[in-house]
Amino acid sequence: MSRGYPDYNAPRTAIGSVSFDSAELAARLGSLSKINRMGNVVYQESFENGLNGWSIYRGSNQKVEVVSSTVFEGGTCLKFKALDPINTYSHIFKLLPLLDYKSFGLEFTFGWKYSASGSVPFFIEVRHYQIGKYYNYKVYIDPNNDLVRIYTLTGSPPDSYVTVLADIGSYIAGLNLHSFHTAKIVLDLENILYKRMYFDQYSVDLSGYSPLEVSSGNFTCLAILIHTEDNIPVDYVLIDNLIATINEP
User: What distance lies between CA 141 and its chain's CA centroid?
Assistant: First the structure.
């Protein structure tokens, strides 16, 4: 389902060039979202068709692959894994069509292979490209230090981040092998602000925080980026069920 409405109906308004009422389909299939049903779905990805449409950049000893051995739901999910402690970065990104993005939500499900040596921290970014710059809404989830950060102009230099959740081990049970959790970041793109974040059953008010501003080329679009840096070959992170929404309240 690439375009639609909040589950169980909403006033009919066009999204892009398509007007589509998904209420009956949602009632039959259940909610895509595991956290809330707000916003209009404009993109959903569970990697059932591989990485088609995603661009991949990685170090020579990193592996990014679609797997079926361990999934959140459906048949596949995305796996980031280090092969040795050299060239430890991996990231993928996806450009979304330019719609009227006044507000935007991105939900994602993730899991770790966790060992005594630690686990794999990762970034989820939403980049809103404007002429000559982009606004970088950046979330960092670190299981080793039990924290969640956002990167913001109002953060602590030089890293410009704010810790919005600490001791996440007490928020979510089972930071261990094949334990999946769901998060959602909601953004006010019109006013260039974070709005809120959900982390399993918990919510965090992010109002008042501005994203990073970065010089860029002369084009406009919205991009989703997933990034890992890891040097522990026995560990990996799994990403599944990305859901992008607009018209978030």
Answer: 11
Of the candidates 96, 97, 80, which has an alpha carbon nearest to the alpha carbon of residue 88? 80
Amino acid identity of residue 26, one-letter, is: A
How far apart are alpha carbons 29 and 180 in whole angstroms?
21
Strand partners, 81: 63, 236
pLDDT by 10s per residue, the chain, length 249: 444 444 434 444 555 544 445 554 454 445 555 666 678 888 889 898 888 889 888 766 678 888 887 788 778 988 887 666 655 678 889 998 777 778 999 999 888 766 555 667 889 999 999 888 999 999 998 877 888 999 998 666 656 889 998 877 665 544 444 578 889 999 999 999 999 999 887 889 999 899 999 888 777 888 999 888 766 656 788 898 899 988 888
Burial 59-85 (b: 16+ CB within 10 A, else e): beebebebeeebbbeeebbbbbbbeee
Show Cβ contacts of residue 163 under 8 Å, excluding neighbours closer than 6 positions. 147, 148, 149
